[in-house]
Amino acid sequence: MKALVYHGPGEKVWEDVPDATVQEPTDVVVRVDTTTICGTDLHILQGDVAAVTDGRILGHEAVGTVTEVGDAVRGFHVGDRVLVPAITKCGRCAYCQRGMPSHCQTVGGIGWIFGHLIDGTQAEFVRVPYADTSLYSVPDDVTNEQAIFLADSLPTGYEVGVLAGNVRPGDTVAVVGAGAVGLAAILTTGLWGASKVIAIDSNKFRLTKALEFGATDAVEVGPDVVADVIALTDGLGVEVAIEAVGYPQTLRTAASLVRPGGTIANIGVHGAPVELPMQDMWIQNIALTMGLVDTVSIPTLLKMVASGRIPAEKMGTHSFTFDQIDDAYDVFKNAAANEALKVVITP
Ligand SMILES: NC(=O)c1ccc[n+]([C@@H]2O[C@H](COP(=O)([O-])OP(=O)(O)OC[C@H]3O[C@@H](n4cnc5c(N)ncnc54)[C@H](O)[C@@H]3O)[C@@H](O)[C@H]2O)c1
Ligand SMILES: [Zn+2]
Ligand SMILES: [Zn+2]
């Protein structure tokens, strides 16, 4: 089979590799019918993720068809159309049992293993461990081009942004950063009845998209960004400020927007310490949340996509085939210049 193999910083090749096979009785093999690229894949290619070593197949998102089933697998059969999520879960360890498979102990202490600790999904076939507890059947009325964004981006915006931020009916919500993850938060904020959703970004195309995804207001980042957003909230600030960029200044912006009693939900992956004005924040009863996505909201999101409440397909702006995967990476790497959000890659 062919797969996109990492060969050290800056090096990746679509090349021949040994076929994916069942290795444990709890495994299945899935033929990848649709995959995509995540910002994390770009971090790996920059050499930022030390656990990813030479020879690893990249990718942690897929929709595909089961082609081989281990002896212990009961819930899936050859021919089933399945969603392979970014997080793998054994279902039995202490973290899986408390609904936090992001820290599944059985698969290595972190639930994100595809394209990280084991071979990933940017390949013709992928081996899926703990298939019964990790895979999701895709309903007939959900297309591959919709389901693929439920593997990572949509659950991340929803779980780490909207749910952790505790968005409630009537709330005013600010989302700092309108990339795929910020847009996923914007797309799902309405499910909890936010009355106002303010998108904040430095990129005009992303702000236009944010309005299409359900934001009520769009604010371009400038020296007065905090005052501009506060002015949209009758001077009060927002109930929930979601951070979806990952820089110190964007988390500080989110912190400056939230009103007393509100929540800052940090989604961004930070690579450096962040200084926050705790001397002002403590007395305002501010909550600060953060975390790695669990993808446990996938069943909910699949229902909402199937019923038309979440137009997940809007995330995909560009399509490629496997042999164009280098072009897909180039477009995604320069997403802003290419007016791209997520890419859809198929055989
Ligand atoms: N917590 C998790 O489990 C998890 C999972 C996936 C991704 N993430 C993180 O979420 C963040 C967003 O991911 P993404 O894929 O949407 O990234 P992205 O690069 O597509 O989007 C980031 C957006 O932020 C905007 N931006 C850049 N600088 C800004 C600034 N100073 N002010 C306002 N906006 C600014 C960009 O224009 C872009 O639209 C990243 O940090 C990513 O690593 C976290
Ligand atoms: Zn990802
Ligand atoms: Zn587990």
UniProtKB/TrEMBL annotation:
PANTHER family (alphabetical): NADP-DEPENDENT ISOPROPANOL DEHYDROGENASE (PTHR42813:SF4), ZINC-TYPE ALCOHOL DEHYDROGENASE-LIKE (PTHR42813)
Name of the protein in its database record: Zinc-binding dehydrogenase
UniProt cross-references to SUPFAM superfamilies, sorted A to Z: GroES-like, NAD(P)-binding Rossmann-fold domains
Keyword Oxidoreductase: yes
UniProt keywords, alphabetically: Metal-binding, Oxidoreductase, Zinc
Ranges that cross the membrane: none
GO molecular function: oxidoreductase activity; zinc ion binding
Transferase as UniProt keyword: no
Pfam families tied to this protein: ADH_N, ADH_zinc_N
Cofactor: Zn(2+)
Domain of life of the native organism: Bacteria
Sequence ranges assigned to domain Enoyl reductase (ER) in this UniProt record: 8-345
Listed InterPro entries: ADH-like_C (IPR013149), ADH-like_N (IPR013154), ADH_Zn_CS (IPR002328), ER (IPR020843), GroES-like_sf (IPR011032), NAD(P)-bd_dom_sf (IPR036291)
Family per similarity comment: Belongs to the zinc-containing alcohol dehydrogenase family.
